[in-house]
TrEMBL record:
The lineage of its organism: Bacteria, Pseudomonadati, Pseudomonadota, Alphaproteobacteria, Rhodobacterales. Keywords: Ribonucleoprotein, Ribosomal protein. PANTHER family: 54S RIBOSOMAL PROTEIN L39, MITOCHONDRIAL (PTHR15238), LARGE RIBOSOMAL SUBUNIT PROTEIN BL33M (PTHR15238:SF1). Belongs to the bacterial ribosomal protein bL33 family. One of its GO terms (molecular function) is structural constituent of ribosome. This is Large ribosomal subunit protein bL33. One of its GO terms (biological process) is translation. The keyword Ribonucleoprotein applies. GO terms for cellular component: cytosolic large ribosomal subunit. HAMAP family: Ribosomal_bL33.
Length: 55
């Protein structure tokens, strides 16, 4: 069976609050780690979220 093109990833907050988003990305076109600026409701501000593995 072929390998899936889209994989689920966890976007973990860099503010060390433990808050995360779960999203999908295309592993063939986006080979580097994903970094997005999103809202962290625990820190109550926009911070960078970096890609981490889902365990």
């Amino acid at each position: 069976m072929a390998k899936a093109t889209t994989i689920k990833i966890k976007l973990l907050s860099t503010a060390d609050t433990g808050y995360f988003y779960v999203t999908k990305k295309n592993s063939r076109t986006m080979t580097e780690k994903m970094v997005q600026r999103k809202y962290d409701p625990i820190a109550k501000k926009h911070v960078e979220f970096k890609e981490a593995k889902i365990k």
